[in-house]
């Protein structure tokens, strides 16, 4: 795995062995960013189930200003830390070593781009979107990018946000919510 494009483009990403995380493939990550960007002019990223950190590192590589990565698994945290170090711009990243639900309670400020790829997709995604809205953690133009198994059916609307784009890539489905 590697960073697909931007200022870190081509640099290798470490991933976790086994089934603890499901890293987004280079192909799917590239397609996601072509769908939502592909490049940005600043903004904050939140990656609530960060895994290897590839999505949020890719977003910063493509022009987002900073990213908050949330991961509860210790082995995944070590992989994220190594991937952040690879960027040579560690000050742009904050790694929160905790569960997503706990992180949501401590976060402040608005995010422009949110990545959700939770282990229990449907119920976790809807609950998380509702809490993000309730806690006013989304900017007016925020995009929420959800990655699920292609069989998962997400509702057309959640907490005042609606599906803007949705595409299937192999076994994965990417759903983007906006206001």
From TrEMBL:
Domain of life: Bacteria
Positions in coiled-coil regions: none
InterPro entries listed in its UniProt record: DNA_methylase_N6_adenine_CS, RNA_MeTrfase_RsmD, SAM-dependent_MTases_sf
Molecular function GO terms recorded: methyltransferase activity; nucleic acid binding
Enzyme's top EC category: transferase
Sequence intervals crossing the membrane: none
Enzyme Commission no: 2.1.1.-
Keyword Transferase: yes
Pfam families xrefs: Cons_hypoth95
Keywords per UniProt: Methyltransferase, Transferase
GO biological process: rRNA methylation
SUPFAM superfamilies: S-adenosyl-L-methionine-dependent methyltransferases
PANTHER family linked: METHYLTRANSFERASE
NCBIfam families from the UniProt entry: 16S rRNA (guanine(966)-N(2))-methyltransferase RsmD (TIGR00095)
Protein name as it appears in the record: RNA methyltransferase, RsmD family
Organism: Streptococcus macacae NCTC 11558
Lineage start: Bacteria, Bacillati, Bacillota, Bacilli, Lactobacillales
